């Protein structure tokens, strides 16, 4: 069943999405400021798989994530979100019609892993950015916590690189990672780092999340690492998690509570009114 979200009295971008996933996204056209915080030296592409609903493990979401590694900092983000945000920015700048914006939202899709993770920015910190339903822009800045790894005597090959195996506990999950000393960079997907080589593959013990490198590229031309969270609302991890929990408990209520002059109607693919989604399955990467 698909959910159609109709907003009245305000010009908003509308996304048709699965009610089962309750990905209700609003975009108000706010211009986001990007600041250059470094220069990428290595670019890594990962195929990411995640299970949002642990009661239905057969429903696996796949998404392309990117890791930009610079001097003393890195950025991990969704390529889907990057493309969609770039297209919408042009639409709003050109005052595109609502019909065009809606079509682009359907065409380019939305990210299921919309968080951006900046390790080493500011120095000694990890900063996480996210937009909940496209209207609540959040920034969580924390101390850079390095995992305590146990390196094991097992080898494998990823992208033809010889890799060694390691395990750690991090943010409520047990992780297995494969890293290569052939690329002596102590980085990896998300907050997984601190090994004597680039992490090319990682998965948690429950099979809920996995990252597998599908490409590694050395940057020969200038590629800035951009930070777009200067105007995001700062908050600690507890408050950050609470905002997400409120959204997944009642997505429509979250939107109308944040934007009281907006009316939301939900209908199925036949135009019949249906109940607002409540208590949507939520399985965050960080617990």
From TrEMBL:
Residues 267-287 are annotated as: Disordered. It comes from the Bacteria. Residues 1-22 form the signal peptide. Keywords: Signal. InterPro entries: GLPGLI. This is GLPGLI family protein.
């Amino acid at each position: 069943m698909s959910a159609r979200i109709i907003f009245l009295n305000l010009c908003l971008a509308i996304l048709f999405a699965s009610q089962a996933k309750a990905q209700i996204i609003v975009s108000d056209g706010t211009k986001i400021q990007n600041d250059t915080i470094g220069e990428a030296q290595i670019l890594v592409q990962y195929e990411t798989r995640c299970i949002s609903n642990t009661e239905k493990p057969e429903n696996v979401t796949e998404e392309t994530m990117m890791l930009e590694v610079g001097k003393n900092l890195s950025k991990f983000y969704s390529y889907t979100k990057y493309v969609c945000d770039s297209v919408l920015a042009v639409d709003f700048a050109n005052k595109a019609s609502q019909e065009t914006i809606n079509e682009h939202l359907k065409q380019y899709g939305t990210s299921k892993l919309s968080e951006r993770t900046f390790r080493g920015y500011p120095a000694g910190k990890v900063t996480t950015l996210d937009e909940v339903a496209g209207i609540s822009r959040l920034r969580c800045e924390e101390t850079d916590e390095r995992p305590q790894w146990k390196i094991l005597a097992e080898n494998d090959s990823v992208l033809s690189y010889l890799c060694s195996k390691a395990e750690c506990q991090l943010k409520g999950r047990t992780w297995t990672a494969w890293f290569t000393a052939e690329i002596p960079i102590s980085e990896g997907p998300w907050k997984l780092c601190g090994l004597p080589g680039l992490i090319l593959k990682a998965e948690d013990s429950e099979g809920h999340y996995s990252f597998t490198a599908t490409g590694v590229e050395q940057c020969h031309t200038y590629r800035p690492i951009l930070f777009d969270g200067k105007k995001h609302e700062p908050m600690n991890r507890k408050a950050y998690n609470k905002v997400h929990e409120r959204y997944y408990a009642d997505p429509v209520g979250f939107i109308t509570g944040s934007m009281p002059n907006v009316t939301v109607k939900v209908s199925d693919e036949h135009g019949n009114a249906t109940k607002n989604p409540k208590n949507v399955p939520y399985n965050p990467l960080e617990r």
